[in-house]
Amino acid sequence: MNKKKTAAQRSETRWAWLFVTPTLLGLIVLNFYPIFNTIYQSFCKTGDFGKGNKFVGLANYQAVLKASETWQSLWNTVKYALIEVPFGIIIALLLAVLLNKKIAGRSIYRTIFFLPMVCAPAAVAMVWKWLYNTQFGLLNNIFHTKISWISDPKIAWISIGVIGVWSIIGYNMVLFIGGLQEIPGDYYEAARIDGAGEIRQFFSITLPLLSPTTFFIVQTRIIGALTVFDLMFMVMDKTNVALKKVQSIVYLFYQYAFTNGNKGYGATLVVVLLVFIMIITVILQRAEKTLVYHN
Predict the structure, then answer these.
(1) Cα distance between residue 64 and residue 23, in whole Å
(2) What pLDDT shows up at residue 189?
(3) What distance lies between CA 282 and its chain's CA centroid?
(4) What is d(CA 67, CA 249) in angstroms, rounded to the nearest whole number?
(5) Chain centroid to CA 166: how far?
(6) What percent helix, strand, coil does the chain show, rounded to 5?
(7) In CA terms, which of 141, 205, 253, 289 is 20 to 30 Å from 198?
(8) Three-state SS for 44?
(9) Residue 195: left (phi > 0), alpha (psi -120 to 50), or beta?
(10) Can you tell me the distance from the alpha carbon of 178 to that of 220, in angstroms, rounded to the nearest whole number?
(11) Three-state DSSP class for 14?
(12) Please, which residues have CB within 8 angstroms of residue 289's CB and are 6 or more apart in sequence?
């Protein structure tokens, strides 16, 4: 039998709804509505400003899946992820292990490596475009070469991937440091008593106990890499001959939805990417049970 709520309980419930409502409204307006509206527009030929939509069924999906540029852009995105995710994680892990030790200037080094995360993307793009400049760039001047770092289709995607790795190292490093600080020091003390060196401790203690943090970073960075846009947009000019071999699928969406005004086609590209990310996420979630060590 349900008991009537007291005045204090009713007041607590009202205050709870008062605090939760702004977040719910934000999720509905900024997340849920755009998702369903994008899926709806993918089945339509949209008019100006998204109005005057004409339902066309699966026509957009047929056009997107048949277009070679869709698969090229998806492959470009995957290639970028293959550079950014593993290298960004490995380098960040090594830095985190080093900067988790008691060394002079530890806080300064942590700040320096985290700085790229707080830099404006436009400033990052401007600096790297200067570094990669064929005639006056710092890299070519140092190595006495004339390599077209961002205009050669064969290596441009690698150059963009390097920027991605450099930009994300600090963020990954901070997460790894947080995970390292959660590992009890007793484990390392017992390992030293048993005669285990630092390398053995790293592979037998640090990596297994850090696996939940590593798995979280892998998941979030894969999603982040597959939705990359700003690097391609600001580093690669529209006249760049290597653009087709570098542009991500989100960049292709931008071109169709905002440059060409074909929002239905652009929405379809987003849905295709969403399905691809969901497949990757499901695979990772199934792999978590065997790859992640829960103590």
Answers:
(1) 35
(2) 87
(3) 17
(4) 12
(5) 13
(6) 75, 0, 25
(7) 289
(8) strand
(9) left
(10) 16
(11) helix
(12) none
> Do residues 179 and 212 lie in contact, with contact meaning Cβ atoms separated by under 8 Å?
yes
**Residues in contact with 144: Cβ distance below 8 Å, sequence separation at least 6, in sequence order:** none
pLDDT at res. 1: 47
Q: Which residues of the chain are modeled with pLDDT < 50?
A: 1
Distance between CA atoms of residues 115 and 129, nearest Å = 18
pLDDT at 37: 87
Can you tell me whether residue 34 is helix, strand or coil?
helix
Q: What is the identity of the amino acid at 159?
A: S
Say if CB 115 and CB 287 are below 8 A apart. no
Q: Are 59 and 262 in contact (CB under 8 A)?
A: no
pTM score: 0.86
Task: Specify the residue for token string 């985190």.
Answer: 96
| Residue type at position 263 | K
The single residue listed with the structure tokens 């939760």 is 20
State how far the Cα of 222 lies from the Cα of 121, in Å rounded to an integer: 19
The contacts of residue 175 (CB under 8 Å, 6+ apart) are: 92, 213, 216, 217
Chain segment 253-282, per-residue pLDDT in tens: 999 988 888 889 999 999 999 999 999 999
Report yes or no: 122 and 234 within 8 Å, Cβ to Cβ: yes
Mention every residue, 6+ apart, whose C-beta is less than 8 A from residue 217: 89, 92, 172, 175, 176
Give me the pLDDT at residue 3, please: 62
Q: What is the pLDDT of residue 47?
A: 67
Which residues have CB under 8 Å from 178's CB, separation 6+?
A: 213
